[in-house]
Each structure stands twice: as C-alpha cells, then as structure tokens.
Amino acid sequence: MRQKTALIPTLREVSEAAEMVSHRLMLRAGLIRQLAAGVYTYMPLAYRVLRKVEQIVREEMDRTGAQELLLPAMHPAELWQETGRYETYGPELVKLKDRHEREFVLGPTHEEVITDLVRHFINSYKRLPMTLYQIQTKFRDERRPRSGLLRGREFIMKDAYSFHTDRESLDETYQAMYDAYVNVFTRCGLDFRAVEADAGAIGGKGTHEFMVLADSGEDTIALCNECDYAANIEMAEVVFNEPAEVTRGEQQPEKVATPKASTIEEVTKVLGVKPDQVIKSILFVADKEPVLVLVRGDHEVNEVKVKNVLNASICELADEATVRRVTGAPVGFAGPVGLKEKVKILADRAVKVMPEAVVGANEADAHLIHVVPDRDFQVDLYADLRNIQEGDVCPRCGGSIRFARGIEVGHVFKLGTRYSEVMRGTFLDKQGREQPYIMGCYGIGISRTVAAVVEQHHDENGIIWPSSIAPFQIHLIAVNMKNEDQARTAEQLYEALTQAGYEVLFDDREERAGVKFKDADLIGIPLRITVGAKVSEGLVEYKFRRSGESGELAVQEVLEQLPELLKRVDQPAS
C-alpha cells in the first residue's frame, strides 16, 4: 500500500476525553474515527488488524470442529420475550420497531436466535454434539462508552454456541474451547489469564473470563502468589475459618448520637472505634423484594455474590425512598435492629463471629453500640458476601492473594438448559425420550482484543504491533522522494517485496523525514526499512520497532535477509 494515497490520517494530539491509551493511540495513528459515542469507523489499518485477528480466531475455531455461519443482527422481540431477557437484560438492550410496529432487538448476543435455529433442524441425539459460530457486529447501549474500542456501543464479536446430549459432552467442548482461546490470545501476543467469573445476563453455571493484564483494565483480578488460581473479584471465594468459640459482649444495645456520620470513616472517627467493629447495613432490591445485607465495616459487599445467593434475576441497590420506607432512616443510618418493615437479612460470615458491633439505629444521626449478632437481631442466612482482599488466603492452596487489573477479551460459559428449556429446544435421546439440549456459549471480543493489544504493546512514541496481527510486515520509507536515487531504489524495493508476497506500507509521501519517522513509530509496524542518503553507497537501514535495534543492509541483500529479520521483530530490547 502506498502511503501517499492511503487513508491514514495521523494526528499529533487528540481530545482529553480519550482517556485510555489504546483510544488515544488508535485515534492518533489514524486507525479509528468516532462517528458517535461508542460508535467507530475502522479505518484501513485497523481493518487489516481486525481481519488478522479474525483469521486467527477462525483457524482455532475450525480446529475444534466448529462450523461458521452468520446470524441476523436484528431479532424479533418475541424470541427475547420467550426467555424473559427482553425485560431483564437491562437498558443496554437496543430496542426498535419496524413500520408495522413490530418490536425488534439489535443483537448484543445470540443465544435466543441460535436456539431457535437449532430447534427447527436438530431433533435427534445422532446429530449432536454440534458447535456453531459467527463473527459479527453486536450492539449494546453502554451507559459510559468512553474507552474507545474497549467499551463501545457497536463492536465486533465472535460468538459460538454448542449443543449436547449430556454434561460430559459439554465438558469436552468447553475444554476444547478453553484451549482454543489460550491459543488465540497467545498468537495475538497477549499476556492474559483465564479467571473464574460470573455469567451475568447470559446465565448458566461454570464460566471463565480471559483477562488481558493491564494497569488500565476496568476489572480487578484476584491472583494467588503461590499457585495459578485466578478469579474475577466478583467471584473470588473468601476463605472463612470459624473460630471454635466467640466471646460475646454482655452490654445491652445503646443509642448514641452520630451527627452527619453516615460513612464508615465518619462513624469510626466520631465513636473512636475501628472499621472492623462496625457493621455496614446495605439495602438491596432483589426481584422487587427488599433485602438487607450486612458486612463488616472494613469489607466491601459483593453485589454479584448477593445476587447469586438469592438466585435473583435482578439485584440492585435500593433507592433512597425504599431505604427510608424500610428502615425509617436516610441512607447511611440503616441497621438490622428495629427495622420498620420485616425483610430478609443476609450477612457475611465474618459478621457472625463479631463479639459486638456498632450498627445504624434506623434514624438520622444515630447509631447503636454493643449490638451482638444473633442476640439483638436475627440473620436469615450467613454466606460469603464480600469482596476478597489482598493478603486474604487463596481458596485453592492457602497462599496469599494479590490484585491485578485486567481487560476482558473472551468469556466461555456452560449454559446448561437455561435457554433450551424455556424455548423448547429438544432432541430425542436413545430411548426416544424428549430432552432439552445442554448448551455452551463462547465469546471473543474481536475489536476489543485489538484495543487490548495496544494497551499492552506501546511506548511513549506509539503502538508496537505483534507481528502476528500487524497491519503490515514492513514499513518502507523513502526519506526524500525528490532524490532520484532514493525514489528509484525505494520503488524497486517496493515492487520486489510485494512481488515476493510481503505486506508492505510504502511511505512515498513528499514529507519531511522527521514527520515520516514519527508516523512510523506511531503506527507501529514491526520492521522499518529506510532508503536514505546511504543509498548512494548501496545501503539501506533496518530498524525493529519493538527493540529499537537497527543496522544496515546492502540493497541487493534485502530480500535474502528479510526472513531472518522478520523472525526477530517480536524480540524485546536487550
């Protein structure tokens, strides 16, 4: 590709609204252009990268025996109503009507559509297992689409769905997909971890997220310092060793004034106590029913664990009006003693062994001290309801937990019969009995993976593409196209390289050398070959984008030396 006529609008500066490194660099390198919030045009360089990621994904999916198809992006609302997700998926679901007032959904995912397809054609165990996948644009109306391709409202995803007669078959495909994902992200040059995760709106039991490690990541990952345990903080299990005996406080509850002290920090300061002597009382609404959740003051409640313990479809923090109705107090002063309404009370296991505690008094500017769990209030269920913390015990080996930040690029689910039962997707087993398909679901964010690569592979000058997905293998630069020797040699090299099958971006622009080199660093193609002043001596310069290593080559030896040079492009600086 000749850069003189290529659509690569590089920029020196971008808006401060672009917070993520990948967002800024992809805008500056002319890879993407925003059309609307969370909606981007993939410019020619970005599209080449996307196609290479897609090819890697296709190769690994096909190796598992999965079959590629293409499903509609616009779904009749009736399919989503069948599963109940039309109401429960949330405001991210893009809904619309056609001219006949029929309701549709722009697909954020395709469980309903693929189940509808398969239930019409696969009705015997002899046709199973089967795995189908597609690569397609998806739509989700994100609340804060401010991270470039990492959180867009329109994005490219690979989604696969498997159908089985039994759990053993699902487990086999799940493992095959897990291994394929490891291959995909390794081939894309990513440093990642597969972590235990929550299924969220997709549903099902048994899931892993594939997280790219990056300081800019939105997700917190709990990692063990001793073993390979890794889990999203939403799912990381907290080890709890209940003591054989707890010495309880003997004093009766006493109301004390805590003016304007509605946070743990304020309460501990006013009362002169430590955070682990206070109980946080947080009101949730789970499937329209209020639930009070208690955790120790130095812990954070885990909303996903609360939702899963309650087996709720929707679980969210109660609004201020609900808090006042149930507790009689403003937010920050709720407690489990003397509630206005009788509600279910859940408590983290650490609350159970507190000798006594400070709790909200269910009235403004007041707390109760000397409150003893199971004496002064009753808990309906004790469970693991808090976020794991750094230094906590690893649930697998007993080692110590540390945190890292991650960007989710893939997710694999064991759906079970979540969709097949409600949609009557069934087959006849060997005994002729009707059974629901047992399903799996496997997603990779294609466009998100590209952005995650940039988050991991860059320096102060720009992007550093891994060779496997770089838009071009070689960036050929003619320093001065007005110099006859340089222009002629560069043109000859471009012709020879392209004829030999190499992917070359040829900077034939009549720009200053400094501009060309800055753009080359920004765009980040792995190997640069520069035709400059030394061409009169029969020499050109090569430079590796990643390591910065450079050297000279005789013009007539470029083709001969290229295979060896390309083997070295991904090596880090020594």
UniProtKB/TrEMBL annotation:
Subcellular location: Cytoplasm
One CC-aspect GO term: cytosol
Record note on quaternary structure: Homodimer.
HAMAP family cross-referenced by the UniProt entry: Pro_tRNA_synth_type1 (MF_01569)
Entry similarity comment: Belongs to the class-II aminoacyl-tRNA synthetase family. ProS type 1 subfamily.
PANTHER family in UniProt: MITOCHONDRIAL RIBOSOME PROTEIN L39/PROLYL-TRNA LIGASE FAMILY MEMBER (PTHR42753), PROLINE--TRNA LIGASE (PTHR42753:SF2)
Protein name as annotated: Proline--tRNA ligase
